[in-house]
Automatic annotation (TrEMBL):
InterPro entries the record matches: ARM-like, ARM-type_fold, HEAT_IPO9_central, Importin-beta_N
Protein name: Importin N-terminal domain-containing protein
GO molecular function, one term: small GTPase binding
CC terms in the record's Gene Ontology section: cytosol; nuclear envelope
Highest taxon in the source lineage: Eukaryota
Annotated localization: Nucleus
Native source organism of the sequence: Anopheles melas
Keyword Nucleus: yes
Domain Importin N-terminal: 30-122
Keywords annotated in UniProt: Nucleus, Protein transport, Transport
Main localization category: nucleus
Length: 595
């Protein structure tokens, strides 16, 4: 039997090497041979040995680890065909017309469980990740009955090297994601361990502590879902949660560096959001500290966000926090802001926090509009890819950018605080306009961006503004728009002016001669020498003019009728250069002209 096992091991090693060979014929031959070897009893054991063998080439080890991951899925999740211990190692005959189950015996399973923990100490992060996945997947089926020593192994790893801590935390992350019926049994042990790791900032890396928070999040969800009574939940959580909550909140204000990161803070905010929405009784004692801390984070980061991300006027003073160097620091920063807005979204929709929101409503609108500004990256991308511009700016767009998310939050604020909003909105826009004027006079080339995001907000609240003219001075705002139209600061600014004016064109305040000036600028903006983003916004404006003035009977209707041919000619000239979503937008404008 040992000879047969050695022969299979040698055969598998040779075929794995061939799969890495550049010659396609050798690869195909090796794949076919391995497809046969897969049905030997010790196939999984050998893959595990290859995976953790640091003397082998890393490419071969990673290949073996991917195959091992699939094998574990097949044999534990699907069962395989269990054979008596000591079965022969000869290759079975494979019936080409059948799909046989994998052969696996208890001894092979025991051997795989003995081998795998060694991989948690591996220097290669990708090997550790696959090994952790395999251990967690096996644990779902074998723990505690057939793998009682698993948590002894995990605790040992948590007291080992930086690599083993990382490996063990990855196991717990994967394991807790799938926990259901076992959560009551395992949660107290895991909770105490992750609390110990999170609070030992000098002993454990930021990555390990981030994993601790991820694991806590999974545990809370599992406890909340699978433990029925509040008394049982309290018995599990109360020994650790009060201290843990205090340390999590403190973690939000810790400066980035060896003990904190944007990724860590993002995970903390995710937990706090979940607890406020789904475990409110457990988090209630801490809300008085959580809300001002999150608010402080959002407001303090706003200026930083504008300089580093929106205007790129300052270099990002941070690097990615992923230990393999794969993550971008700006991306981590952006993800944290998105998570803060998700938290704010949750709070806004909860009636119990209405008084708290009303107290900061002007500042909330001010900050949200600030985060709605077009970034330099977006401005460049949209000029190069008009399809992306239309997709990103569509109300039903699917990409969760900070601009889109902040705009969504503003709309929710409008829905939930309609009566109180407009005075706060007017005050916030006044502050933005004053700052923009200072920036413009100082020669800041990005001064127009806050006006663009302000107009997007005004257009979004059209119905509210029209119904409450005393609460928003549209005449004064139109004077500002006229000035902005003539500034030639950016095609995005001019395009947004046209869009906004088309939204309000049926209102009595918008009359001649300004109305004719607006329509003439719209026609001019369709010409082929104009930036594509301006042409797209002009098409949106045409749709607005034609739709909103269709049933109008005064001179504005006469004006629009006199310009339909110009609209038509301008749009038709754009069709040859357009495709997909841009074409769809032009067709919508064309249909509005026709109707």
């Amino acid at each position: 039997m040992a000879q047969n096992s050695d022969a299979v091991k040698q055969a598998m090693f040779e075929e794995l090497q061939k799969i890495l060979h550049p010659d396609s014929d050798q690869r195909k031959s090796a794949e076919a041979r391995l497809a046969q070897l897969k049905f030997t009893e010790w196939y999984g054991v050998l893959l595990a040995e290859f995976t953790i063998d640091q003397q082998l080439h890393i490419g071969l080890r990673q290949l073996a680890s991917v195959m091992l991951k699939q094998y574990v899925n097949d044999c534990w999740a699907d069962g395989g065909d269990v054979v008596e211990d000591g079965g022969a190692g000869d290759l079975p005959a494979i019936d080409a017309g059948a799909t046989p189950a994998l052969l696996v015996n208890d001894e092979a399973k025991r051997r795989i469980k003995q081998i795998l923990p060694e991989g948690l100490y591996d220097q290669n992060s990708k090997i550790r990740s696959v090994v952790a996945y395999c251990i967690a997947n096996i644990a779902l089926y074998d723990w505690p009955g057939d793998w009682q020593e698993l948590f002894d192994v995990i605790v040992k790893c948590l007291s080992g090297t930086e690599n083993s801590v990382d490996g063990a935390m990855k196991v717990l992350v994967e394991f807790t994601l799938e926990l259901d019926r076992q959560v009551g049994e395992v949660a107290p042990l895991i909770l105490s361990e992750v609390y110990r790791i999170f609070t030992a900032a000098n002993q454990y890396s930021v990555t390990a502590r981030k994993y601790a928070v991820e694991i806590l999040y999974s545990l809370l969800r599992s406890i909340n879902t699978n433990i029925e009574t509040r008394q049982e939940k309290s018995a599990i959580l109360n020994p650790v949660l009060p201290n843990f909550m205090q340390r999590l909140i403190e973690g939000l204000t810790a400066p980035n560096g060896p003990h904190s990161s944007f990724q860590l803070k993002t995970q903390i905010i995710k937990i706090l959001k979940y607890m406020i929405s789904d475990m409110s009784k457990f988090v209630q004692p801490y809300v008085g500290t959580i809300l001002p801390t999150i608010w402080q984070l959002l407001t303090q980061l706003a200026d930083f966000y504008v300089k580093v991300v929106v205007n790129e006027s300052e270099a990002a003073p941070f690097n990615g926090t992923d230990q393999d160097g794969d993550d971008d620091g700006v991306e981590d920063f952006t993800q944290m802001i998105l998570q803060i807005f998700e938290f704010v979204h949750t709070i806004i929709e909860m009636k119990k926090y209405k008084a708290a929101i009303v107290n900061v409503l002007t500042d909330l609108v001010y900050i949200t509009v600030l985060y709605m500004q077009i970034t330099e990256e977006q401005a460049q991308q949209w000029l190069e890819d008009p399809e992306k511009f239309v997709d990103d700016e569509d109300e039903q767009g699917v990409e969760f950018t900070i601009r889109v998310t902040a705009h969504d939050v503003l709309l929710i604020v409008g829905r939930e605080y309609e009566q109180q909003l407009l005075p706060c909105f007017t005050e916030a826009l006044g502050k933005h306009s004053a700052v923009a004027e200072v920036d413009r006079n100082a020669g800041n080339p990005h001064w127009w961006k806050i006006h663009e995001s302000s107009m997007l907000a005004v257009g979004s609240f059209k119905d509210m503004i029209v119904e409450s003219p005393a609460s928003f001075d549209m005449g004064q705002y139109l004077a500002l728009i006229k000035m902005l139209m003539e500034s030639q600061a950016s095609p995005y600014l001019l395009g947004r002016c046209l869009w906004l004016l088309s939204r309000f064109c049926e209102c009595d305040i918008l009359r001649q001669p300004f109305m004719e000036q607006i329509v003439n600028v719209t026609v001019d903006s369709l010409s082929m020498d104009k930036p594509i983003v301006l042409r797209i916004m002009a098409a949106r404006a045409i749709y607005g003019f034609c739709s909103n003035l269709k049933d109008n009977k005064d001179e504005r209707h006469v004006l629009i009728m006199s310009k339909l041919e110009n609209f038509f000619d301008g749009l038709v000239g754009l069709f040859e250069q357009s495709q997909n979503t841009v074409l769809g937008l032009f067709l919508e404008a064309l249909s509005a002209i026709i109707s």
